[in-house]
Amino acid sequence: MSIKLTPLPLSVKADRSKLAEFGREIHGVDLNNVTPQQFAEIREALYKHEVILFRNVKISPADQAAFTKAFDTTSGYGHAFDPSISEISTRLLQMHGIPGVPEVQLIGHGTVFNHEGVARADLNHPTHKEFHKTVVSPEDEAKGYTRYYRWHIDAAFYDLSPPRVTSLYGAVVPKGIPQIVRYDDGSGDELPVTLGATAFVNTNNTFELLPAEYKSLAVRMKVKYAPHLYAWVNNTHAVSTGIAIENEGLEVPLGDLPPWTEEKRKVLSVLWKNEVTGKLHFQVHPSIAHELLVDPLPAGANRTGALYPDGAHITDLRTVRDILFKIQRPGIASSLVYAHDWQKDDLVLFHNRGLMHSVTGALKDDDLRVFHQCNLHGSDDPAPPSAEDIKMYA
């Protein structure tokens, strides 16, 4: 039996011309008995639509891990969370590995007892107040205003390749008064969301929105990431949109981080090629980008108005962040965001090489939220632009 797909509901602010293919709910599949044909269709749907949803699912952590691994069969455990540096990073998510299935992490909010073999877990839903330089006032927070926490990609970006797929399962989902995400950057932009919604953006839109000179730059550019990402940015603050780090000089010096080696630092193209659709996605984790490397324009390319036509190695952190912010900020406009309204027993899979996502909102002390998260490091690095792509855009 073939699967059935229906569009996910978009916000009233959504630009439907740019989100027409983004997000699908899948019907007619028993996840305990997925046929090879159905899995092939599910995989194609994931890469084409970036986010896929299964409602009313009962799935064990072991089965969730197996289903996630099926999208990259030689992948392995690879959370960005590194217990060895937890003592110097207060920004690590409070994650608890589920006994026997360490690749599935228990995340959420509130205190959980005797859950999937975990005797007790004290969970914390991160909010912008823990990370942003400025925060929503208590008066506005009481009116329901909030922010994105941090736009990111699930990956360690040190030694291990980024996961292809992340799966999230809503075991306990709190319900409460909807909130309004404010950008607070002078744009006046805002987005109504349900309590604890997860926000997603398709980073192919980020690339497609770029003017020609920035598309030329993107196809020639790589990013070098800092090692031990959470420890490096532990003392820093994010801008109000959650898409960049403030330039305050608060990063932990690389020499003061836990031991690391240069060859394990990830250097990746800023554009990742979708292995099914062939589309280019501007995929950079902005919080932990450390350097940019730009190739020169290819022979015969038009140099008029070109950025860094002779190539460059950009190590000034402010410049790195300014370039990435100029590219990435338009891609998180409210008209381009899908904010998932969680229901109990939702299983959401997202293409971690084709989008960015962010936690939203703030939960009260008595709001219980229990999720199972699984992402596995990739078996290889994402595909960069092809020679044809470079010829087309450079």
Question: Top keywords for this entry?
Answer:
394 residues; alpha+beta; TauD/TfdA-like; metal ion binding; Taurine catabolism dioxygenase; TfdA_dioxygenase; TauD-like_sf
Can you describe what's shown?
Helices cover 18% and strands 27% of the residues. It has helices at 16-19, 36-49, 61-69, 138-142, 203-208, 212-219, 229-232, 317-328, 387-393, and strands spanning 4-7, 24-27, 51-54, 76-77, 96-98, 101-115, 118-123, 145-146, 165-172, 179-182, 190-193, 198-202, 221-225, 267-269, 271-273, 280-282, 289-294, 312-314, 337-340, 347-351, 355-359, 369-377. It is globular and about 60 Å long. The N and C termini lie far apart (45 Å). The relative contact order is 0.23.
Helix and strand topology:
Layout: E1 4-7, H1 16-19, E2 24-27, H2 36-49, E3 51-54, H3 61-69, E4 76-77, E5 96-98, E6 101-115, E7 118-123, H4 138-142, E8 145-146, E9 165-172, E10 179-182, E11 190-193, E12 198-202, H5 203-208, H6 212-219, E13 221-225, H7 229-232, E14 267-269, E15 271-273, E16 280-282, E17 289-294, E18 312-314, H8 317-328, E19 337-340, E20 347-351, E21 355-359, E22 369-377, H9 387-393
Parallel strand pairs: 2-3, 8-10
Antiparallel strand pairs: 1-2, 3-20, 4-22, 5-6, 6-7, 6-22, 9-20, 9-22, 10-11, 12-19, 12-21, 13-14, 13-17, 15-16, 17-18
